[in-house]
Design brief:
Layout (H helix, E strand, L loop, with lengths): L11 H30 L3 H17 L7 E3 L4 E5 L7 E5 L19 H7 L2 H7 L8 E5 L12 E6 L1 H7 L10 E6 L2 E8 L8 H6 L5 H4 L2 E7 L4 H4 L1 E7 L13 E2 L9
Antiparallel strand pairs: 1-2, 2-3, 3-5, 4-5, 4-8, 5-10, 6-7, 7-9, 8-9
Length: 264
């Protein structure tokens, strides 16, 4: 005759904790799935997440809600992208459509690139290790190669083959464009010693793309010129749909799988 073991009945407090953990996990999964569906059908999804969820949460509770961080003073939010293991996005808390917006060139415009570069630490937190600055990159797509109509700068790891190719520009004279082919497409590269004021990548690219229509065709990527950007400077990488064999997106130079973090 089989022996019946006494059934263990969870204590009420333990049961409540179990239910709360399960509910929280379901809420996170539901939110991520909802955001994925929202982004697929709504070109204003990023703006709605920041403006309707993250900013109100920061204002009301001091916590960023769905975002990783909200800086109300500097007017940007950082959001973990649903694509990739480490990709984050810098998104203005102001309504800014994209690279073509005159707002990015206004005298009082925030230094989005500088803030995005500081925010690379969230990529490193995701992969649980520090990375050399020339293995980290920032990128913005042209108006015609994006899915969202709210400015967002991608922050993620670089493809190692691209970092290796860009190494030949590590000692370029600052402030001068050099043309090169990366991943089969033409880009121009400029080494700079800062990412703000006159060296703001938006301002650099706008010098010979004088209006919104010309800027709308541009893509920009920024990465460290060497292992330490503070010492080595940065590389501003630019192409456009108006360039022979050019591109309106440099996002392919980033590696959303962040394989460099797995290298020994």
């Amino acid at each position: 005759m089989p022996i019946r073991m006494p059934m263990t009945v969870p204590k009420p407090a333990h049961l409540r904790q179990t239910i709360l953990r399960a509910t929280a996990a379901l809420a996170v999964a539901f939110t991520a799935a909802s955001c994925a569906r929202l982004a697929a059908v709504d070109s204003n999804a990023l703006w709605k997440i920041v403006d309707l969820r993250c900013v109100p949460s920061q204002q009301a509770t001091g916590t960023p809600g769905q975002c990783t961080v909200v800086d109300l003073d500097k007017r940007y939010a950082i959001l973990k992208d649903i694509v990739g293991r480490s990709q984050h996005l810098l998104i203005p808390t102001d309504r800014v459509t994209g690279i073509e917006s005159p707002f990015v060139l206004a005298p009082n415009a925030p230094d989005y690139w500088d803030d995005a570069w500081v925010s690379r630490l969230y990529v490193e937190k995701s992969v649980k290790r520090s990375l050399p600055d020339n293995q980290l990159g920032l990128e913005i797509n042209s108006q015609f190669r994006r899915t969202q109509n709210q400015l967002h700068i991608h922050i993620d790891c670089m493809h190692s083959k691209v970092s290796d190719a860009l190494a030949r520009h590590a000692k370029d004279t600052p402030g001068e464009w050099r043309w090169d082919t990366l991943d089969g497409q033409r880009y121009r590269i400029m080494r700079v010693t800062s990412l703000d004021q006159a060296s703001n990548p938006f301002r650099i690219v706008a010098r010979d793309n004088k209006d919104a229509a010309a800027m709308a065709m541009q893509t920009i990527l920024v990465t460290g010129a060497g292992p330490s950007a503070e010492k080595d400077g940065w590389l501003v990488v630019n192409s456009g749909l108006d360039v022979d064999n050019g591109s309106g997106s440099a996002e392919g130079l980033l590696d959303h799988a962040c394989r460099v973090a797995d290298d020994k």
